Amino acid sequence: MTLRLPSNCTVDAVPGSTLTTLPGWTLDALNVGPFRSAQGYDAHFARTMGSTCDFGDEFRFSDDTLLLETLILNVPERNLDRGELAAWKESPVSPGLLRLRERESFLFDETTARYFARDGSALLCFFDEFVPTERRYRINVAPSLDLLSDDGRYYGWMLSWPVRHLIPGTLGGSSSPARLEDDPELVPLVHE
């Protein structure tokens, strides 16, 4: 399967293995890998290629295998419920990673809207200018994190049970939660 990214770069979805790092959520961003302020980030950035969060979301790929290694996904401020969360949850899902077709860096626009489920079961981030079709597919790239494909086009991403992924510090803290746990009292606080 191929996936067209917002930059018109096409990548392959390689079924099978996923990233093992737990996503860490800081309300305004989701990290799967080191924070930009973390020690060792510059070395990681130098040995990988892809997009940078200076201009949108950051997708970094191994220079050797061209497989996805880390992500930094911005969470849009605009909350928009288009009633499509159930359809995404029911869409086919397969574990896998993205792989570049060639060594290249590219721009990657961040999503423009989000929807946080009232029951706390999911955070859906998407491009509000796209109208979804019935050809939905999810690529599970990390624990609880799916990249969304709509008719072969990158549509956004979905984090299941996002409150479990909240991390204590924002910048400079651990890049992933120590353990996944529910705190039902937090769901109403982060909903809006």
Radius of gyration, Cα only, in angstroms? 16 Å
Structural class: mainly beta
Distance from N terminus to C terminus (CA atoms, Å) equals: 35 Å
Individual helix count:
3
Q: What kind of oligomer do you see?
A: single chain
Shape: globular
* Beta-strand proportion: 35-45%
Q: Uncertain segments of ≥5 residues (pLDDT<50)?
A: 170-174
The strands making up the biggest β-sheet line up spatially as 1-2-8-11-12-13-10-9
Estimate percent helicity: under 10%
Q: Which sequence of SSEs, written as H and E, runs from N to C?
A: EEEEHEEEHEEEEEEH
Provide the residue-averaged pLDDT.
85
Number of strands: 13
The description of the largest β-sheet is:
8 strands, mixed
Could you name the key traits of this structure?
single chain, 192 residues, mainly beta, eight-stranded mixed sheet, 3 helices
Question: Can you give a write-up of this model?
Answer:
- This protein has 192 residues and is mainly beta.
- It is built from three helices and 13 strands; from the N terminus they run E-E-E-E-H-E-E-E-H-E-E-E-E-E-E-H.
- The radius of gyration is 16 Å and the shape is globular.
